[in-house]
Amino acid sequence: MRALTLVLALLGAQTVALAWPAYACGCGAMVPADQSRIGVNQETSAVRWDGRTEQIVMRLTVHGDAEEAAWIMPVPHRASVKLGESRLFDELAALTAPRPEDRPYFWPRSGDWPFEDADGAAAPPGAAAQGPGVDVVGRERLGPFDVARLAADDPGALRDWLRDNGFRLPPRVAGELAPYVERNWEYVAVRLAPSKKQASSDAADGGGAVDGGGAVEGGGAAGEDGAAGDDGAQDTGGDVLSGALQPLHLTFSSDRLVYPMRLSRAAREPQSLGLYVLAPHRMEPRDAIGGRAPEVTFADRLEAADQPELVRELADGDVHLTALRQNFPEPEKITGDHVLRRAASDRPFHRTYDRDVLLRWGGVPAWMVTVGGALLLVLVLVTALLVRRGRRRNTPPRHPVSPGA
Description:
Number of helices: 8
Pfam family, one: DUF2330
Keywords: Membrane, Signal, Transmembrane, Transmembrane helix
Protein name: DUF2330 domain-containing protein
Organism: Streptomyces tubbatahanensis
């Protein structure tokens, strides 16, 4: 009863009466509260799968005027939840960035000696039952997030529980939960409400990982990766959810690599998905599930010794990294969840871009060698000509010899 009271107090604190339709993100429904609006600009996730366990570190970039929002994500098995770090995505972006291919040019340009320097251009780029058929299997505070983990065996009971606890999903979203209930999936329900008071409380209390039973493990400052991080993610100085939210890190058992997408069918605006997949082999989506064809932007094997810090922690050994991006111009056409499988080949793929570089020979600009060599040759020829003329002047004239002398 104590745990039940806590859950009700936590999630019932917001009374959601929606006047706007729900906006859905790629792997969960994002629902604003109190007649406000919220939309997802970009969803970026790092997915680690070793054949038995799947980890999803997800970061959403949102916009709108909502001071609070609820987010629902289905998972195939019981999940543990902890805060992720935004810096992970910086490391992955650096690893998968396009690589330059040098295109030499001969004559110096602006910025090359002897011309004046020009401004450089950047390179391109635990639990008690609550209602019939619903169990609250865990509840925790993680940084700016209030997290409840749910199990349900009845779609109606799940919708009722969500409604009674502030997650008042419109029919378009609620209807998409039924297939997950039928497959006995569980759910992570998150309430986001950044504020100055909450941020200071989190910094004092510290954060931690939560296991499948809801126990808090470890510690660490909730602001370590910053609810108001250096990259401008999540403005806790205001009361509006905006920008890149702090990532959440979910871990659950799975014998196949699946990325939940069905709830995006309820989205009212185009969706954009970016996936970094760390697995034993190069991976690819089984199909486009109603969106445009997924685009591979990077694929290669990463040795553990060459991985940056946070990627190495997530990968836990040598892995193949596959970077994918996909757009969903008409989300209502999404047919289900992404299932990723091993690609036919582990062949590496890297994007490239042309980079103009001054042609050099032995570290010396080629134009200087050429011009200098030409000048030297002219100097040698002129010197030889002058020497020859000087010798002629200094040679005494020959006198004819008379006969009989």
